[in-house]
């Protein structure tokens, strides 16, 4: 049973080595710009503290997707470029999280203090978040400027960033922690927030970058069918991202701290989660009154009353029904993609790109 874990750890360690390389290069670039040594040291701490600490799933998915599309192992140069694109997504994630924590006045991130709360950092973290974003475009220019797909990479990062910020805006004005108004919530709004704030950069971007690197064109014909691979990928990965976030929302309410590694806070934090939106859509008058009076309050008794309503409406059974429906719907979309011959490397989309994502998250418990 230990072999898969060892393989996963080896893959992560190999991916981590690429970060060490590009971090050192970024620090050297700062020195070449005649930055004072204390500023260079500050920048290095920013990189080390904020970029590599997460699960790295988004970044490593670029490497996995390139291998699947190529249908073979990657050369050292191919691996480095795929991993570098993956790390650019991790830089994007770090940029979002550093700024998001300031907006939310969060306390911890990845089991350590939020970056802005470190001694002497404070609002300097705003500029540091911009520098994390700026590093992406420095790296893309250095390593991909001569590639025919360079502009596609730039557009992918810019468009994804803009969409994520749209999702963040809707989330911030829909569910501020200090003002509860459940009339602003809806399943439709939840879907928009999730797709824009999470699905584009957490799912679609990894695959789109891998497709660009592998020369997948805007359209092609296979087995007598015209395929528009980027549209097909988006049609699968947005609902996949929505399913993933809905899982997160449900686990926040239903998972134990031992399972999910944290105590769920969506109810007390006034989150526009899947759970509250389902409850609002089916609650009777008495239940709705409880939700209006108790949701989003920093009060354990009121949180318990909201959870009691969730149980009354049979939320777990509704979630498991949703999960099966989502799995079947996404599987149908994946199976609709014409499959190329095995072992060929010819710029075609492959179903395994998507099934590898789906199999990782289906029925996950953490």
What can you tell me about this protein's structure?
There is one protein chain. The protein has 366 residues and is mainly alpha-helical. The protein has helices spanning 2-32, 37-50, 57-70, 76-104, 124-144, 150-174, 187-213, 229-254, 257-260, 274-282, 285-294, 300-312, 315-335, 352-361, and strands spanning 108-109, 112-113, 220-222, 225-227. Helix 1 crosses helix 4, helix 4 (76-104) packs antiparallel against helix 5 (124-144) and helix 11 (285-294) packs antiparallel against helix 12.
Structural class by secondary-structure content:
mainly alpha
Low-confidence residue ranges = none
Portion of residues within helices: 55-70%
Q: Give the neighbour order of strands across the main sheet.
A: 1-2
The profile of the biggest β sheet is:
2 strands, antiparallel
Number of helices: 14
Strand content: under 5%
List keywords for this structure.
14 helices
Summarize the structure.
The chain has helices spanning 2-32, 37-50, 57-70, 76-104, 124-144, 150-174, 187-213, 229-254, 257-260, 274-282, 285-294, 300-312, 315-335, 352-361; strands at residues 108-109, 112-113, 220-222, 225-227.
List the helices and strands and how they pair.
Layout: H1 2-32, H2 37-50, H3 57-70, H4 76-104, E1 108-109, E2 112-113, H5 124-144, H6 150-174, H7 187-213, E3 220-222, E4 225-227, H8 229-254, H9 257-260, H10 274-282, H11 285-294, H12 300-312, H13 315-335, H14 352-361
Antiparallel strand pairs: 1-2, 3-4
